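Take one record.
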Amino acid sequence: MVERQAILTTFVRLTAGVLLVALLAAGIPLAWVWVGAQVQGGTAPSGTAIATVVTGCMASYGCVALLAAWLKGRKDQQSAAARHERFAWNRSMRDSRHRPPDTNFLENVLIVSTIVVGIIVVVWFFLYGSPGVPQV
């Protein structure tokens, strides 16, 4: 029964991670492109539409980063209160070695989202993007 619960938990976490990666990698930029298209109005690109998309994406990802930092801070405070950890200068040489903390679920989602967006941008740039120079 414990193994079945572990498999179910892993499946739920993986599904939630994939959905969060899709939302962060595609949802936020596409939503702001849509907002920029509404601001633009016509077919010619306008500076206000481009500024709206860039500023909106940066603000949205900034809010996501603040939320992630707040959630991680809450967890770190709870786990630090549960265990007593000495500062580096106050540890004995015989103390257990200090390991860097493992990444948590939300950090892993943000890392994978960044990698996915980077891959999409590189593929788009090299395969589908035009150089932006008028053809004579």
In short: Helices lie at 2-40, 47-82, 105-128.
